[in-house]
């Protein structure tokens, strides 16, 4: 008796997003099947990993992660060049953490200068992230959109309370936009609709349904992503067909499991591989749920995820 | 394929005799369709109808136990492809492979790793569930030697005996008779002998196929030899094949009612790269493996796998809860602040994580609100001034702190007045609305 593979019939497709131009441009999305289901359709673009860097020294990052960037962490441009040239980053995500009122409150003009300096020194695609302060981001991201107008980037994150300003700036300066909502497929859909209603091109949005770390609610992120992908592919819901980003590093590198030493918690095992595997597993889980773009911090975790993706593609 | 209530109704006597405890045959058939009652409750149903119903009501993926006694684990019984549809039922079994070519010390260490693998997380005891012994040498004597060591040192741990060599299999499985083991390695060429060994040892039988076509052939063949408790290996080894085969198998069993692949799946994911192996275990956990076989089980790796398995197998309709308690974050003293919130696990994790971030040692009072988040619990009347006051009084936290000050979530600022009335002598402080504002807030105290 032969086995008849029950292939699924899909009705929709995820938009293909390319960032930057030229030889170093990266492309993600574009699939017309569930993640890694190349056996029944097209899943050709391997998820892209962007290395996260910051505009201030990463003093809040755990020791083992800070060490990796000890020589470059206090100089954003050096840091950017290091991840591009030494770590062979496909893309860089610059988080303007220093603009947060609690982390130095750098001005929008200062942030714009940093962005300009980074852009002048790298040739891989750039994702520019605010500090996740709704008011400040509206101010900062408008300024940085302008200085980056000759280099199409991804700007983020636009949220319900600030999307108008940020989306307008991204639109005027030809950037793509991360639209973030909090762990709810309906909120995510609603934000996409509001963005397109103001004239933002729906094919230039990247969905961030909010990340969570392994052990700290990843099942919520996983399921919201999975449902967004099912809506896009099975129901052909055109408001949910954007690629999804997993902002992994910042959710992982603050929890106890990546910081508590083996001396304190012997049954948790060695800290270094634990932290790396924690970030890698969080990222891999999200690729299985539908993420096409990952923002990560530890080079070894990035390597592990790439090894996984190579086996899956 | 499962029958609908109406299809079942047609098979019932339609007498509305009420002997089953339901008012009508239709009501009974609806309950049957949802598998809430047994067909045995109907005294008048014909044998033929019972048989039809029995076949139809069998779960699409056969339930199979691995091991015996308290450490036995259940597999199969899954009913969905996506966890938002319904809870994934039986968590993927994690098993470490021990080859009969490994030296004594390596073998002893692995057994020890399994025996000491238990970790508590959010009230659940998580551990490496099983040991897989592999006949790498293809030598029966050597394999039996390994079987003896495992049976002696880890008598309670469920065992998977892996060999395609019938002599080896026979020698090893003899040490696990009646222990609910899995005898893996049944192929087209040794099926009859392996089926007999499995039956004799009270073991389930692991099919090793080369592709999905052969797999469904071999399960039918095994059934022909009288073995019904099967576990399947399609032969997939690379991640790309594992997701393809596991997805097709799960879909065929659940959506098409294909009984020939309605059994738990075993995947071998051993890799030299430990991180990659961990990630592939993650693939098995999310994508339909019932057993994942690993090359090693280091503690850090276990914590990652256990946590991921726990996360994926939680019931999406029932919020995960944390036990009501006053938790110490950092090493709080009597001068440390006291924060109260609800026992929704996500609330707990996020708040605890942000407190840790702040590096300000804090007493975190987690109140049982049936796993609801702050606003929902407040709206549902479970996080009210009266209940919070009782909880704080009964928690005994008062003896641990110097000044009677309680920080409440900003979203329930409205409760502060009533709480001050109910908690006499206490000062109620309204904290931030969002957890991410906690570090700045705590540092400012």
Q: Give, in spatial order, the strands making up the sheet with the most strands of chain B.
A: 10-9-8-7-6-3-12-11
Q: Which sheet architecture does the biggest sheet of chain B show?
A: 8 strands, parallel
Sheet bearing the most strands of chain A, described?
Answer: 8 strands, parallel
Helix content class of chain B? 25-40%
Helix content of chain A: 25-40%
In terms of structural class, how would the helical and strand content of chain A be classed? alpha/beta
Domain unit count of chain A: 1
β-strand percent of chain B reads: 15-25%
CATH topology of chain A: TIM Barrel
CATH architecture of chain A: Alpha-Beta Barrel
Total strands of chain B: the figure is: 17
Number of domains of chain B: 3
Structural class of chain B: alpha/beta
Kindly, what is the distance between the CA atoms of the first and last residues of chain B, rounded to a whole number of angstroms?
62 Å
CATH class assignment of the largest domain in chain B? Alpha Beta
Q: Round the mean pLDDT of chain B to the nearest integer and report it.
A: 93
Going across the biggest sheet of chain A, name each strand in turn: 8-7-6-5-4-3-10-9
């Amino acid at each position: 008796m032969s086995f008849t593979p029950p292939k699924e019939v899909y009705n929709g497709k995820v938009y293909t997003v390319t960032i930057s131009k030229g030889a170093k441009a990266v492309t993600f999305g574009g699939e017309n099947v569930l993640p890694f289901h190349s056996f029944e359709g097209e899943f050709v673009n391997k998820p892209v990993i962007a290395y996260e860097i910051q505009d201030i020294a990463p003093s809040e990052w755990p020791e083992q992660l800070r060490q990796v960037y000890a020589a470059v962490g206090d100089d954003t441009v050096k840091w950017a060049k290091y991840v591009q040239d030494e770590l062979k980053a496909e893309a860089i995500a610059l988080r303007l953490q220093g603009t947060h009122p609690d982390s130095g409150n750098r001005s929008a003009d200062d942030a714009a200068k940093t962005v300009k300096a980074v852009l002048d020194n790298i040739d891989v695609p750039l994702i520019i992230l605010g500090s996740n302060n709704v008011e400040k981001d509206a101010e900062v991201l408008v300024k940085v959109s302008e200085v980056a107008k000759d280099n199409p980037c991804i700007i983020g994150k636009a949220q319900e309370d600030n999307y108008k300003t940020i989306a307008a700036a991204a639109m005027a300066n030809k950037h793509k936009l991360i639209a973030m909502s909090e762990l709810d497929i309906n909120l995510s859909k609603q934000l996409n609709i509001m963005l397109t209603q103001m004239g933002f091109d729906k094919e230039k949005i990247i969905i961030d349904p909010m990340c969570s770390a392994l052990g700290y609610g990843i099942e919520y992120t996983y399921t919201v992503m999975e449902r967004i992908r099912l809506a896009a592919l099975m129901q052909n819901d055109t408001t949910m067909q954007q690629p999804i980003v997993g902002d992994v590093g910042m959710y992982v590198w603050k929890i106890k499991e990546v910081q508590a030493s083996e001396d304190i918690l012997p049954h948790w095992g060695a800290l270094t591989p634990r932290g790396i595997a924690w970030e890698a597993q969080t990222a891999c889980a999200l690729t299985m749920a539908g993420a096409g773009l990952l923002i990560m911090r530890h080079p070894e975790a990035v390597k592990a995820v790439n090894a996984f993706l190579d086996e899956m593609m | 394929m499962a029958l609908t209530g109406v299809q079942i109704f047609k098979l019932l006597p339609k007498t509305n005799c009420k002997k089953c405890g339901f008012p009508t045959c239709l009501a009974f058939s609806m309950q049957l369709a949802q598998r809430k009652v047994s067909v045995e409750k109907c005294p008048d149903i014909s044998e033929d109808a019972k048989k039809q119903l029995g076949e139809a009501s069998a779960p699409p993926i056969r339930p199979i136990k691995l091991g015996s006694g308290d450490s036995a684990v259940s597999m199969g019984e899954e009913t969905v492809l996506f966890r938002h549809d319904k809870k994934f039922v039986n968590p993927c079994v994690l098993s470490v492979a021990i080859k009969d070519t490994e030296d004594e010390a390596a073998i002893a260490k692995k057994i020890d790793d399994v025996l000491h693998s238990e970790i508590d997380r959010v009230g659940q005891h998580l551990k490496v569930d099983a040991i897989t012994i592999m006949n790498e040498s293809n030598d029966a004597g050597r394999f039996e030697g390994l079987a003896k060591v495992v049976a002696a040192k880890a008598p309670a741990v469920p065992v998977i005996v892996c060999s395609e060599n019938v002599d080896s299999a026979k020698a090893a499985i003899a040490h696990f008779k009646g222990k609910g083991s899995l005898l893996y390695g049944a192929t087209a060429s040794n099926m009859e002998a392996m089926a007999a060994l499995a039956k004799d040892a009270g073991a389930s039988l692991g099919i090793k196929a080369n592709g999905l076509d052969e797999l469904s052939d071999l399960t039918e063949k095994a059934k022909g030899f009288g073995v019904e408790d099967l576990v399947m290996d399609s032969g997939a080894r690379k991640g790309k094949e594992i997701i393809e085969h596991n997805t097709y198998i799960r879909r065929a069993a659940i959506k098409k009612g294909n009984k020939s692949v309605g059994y738990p799946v075993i995947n071998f994911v051993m890799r030299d790269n430990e991180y990659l192996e961990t990630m592939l275990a993650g693939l098995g956990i999310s994508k339909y493996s019932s057993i994942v076989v690993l090359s090693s089980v280091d503690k850090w790796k276990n914590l990652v796998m256990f946590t991921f398995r726990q996360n994926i197998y939680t019931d999406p309709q029932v919020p995960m809860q944390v036990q009501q308690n006053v938790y110490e974050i950092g090493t709080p003293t009597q001068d440390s602040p006291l924060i109260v919130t609800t026992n929704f696990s996500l609330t707990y994790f996020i708040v605890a994580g942000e407190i840790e971030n702040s590096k300000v040692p804090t007493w975190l009072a987690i109140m049982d609100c049936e796993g609801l988040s702050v606003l929902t619990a407040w709206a549902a009347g479970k996080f009210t001034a009266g209940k919070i006051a009782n909880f704080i009084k009964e928690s005994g936290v008062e003896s641990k702190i110097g000044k009677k000050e309680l920080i409440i979530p900003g979203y329930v600022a409205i409760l502060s007045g009533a709480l001050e009335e109910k908690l006499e002598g206490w000062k109620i402080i309204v904290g931030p609305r969002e957890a991410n504002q906690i570090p700045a807030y705590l540092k400012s105290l």
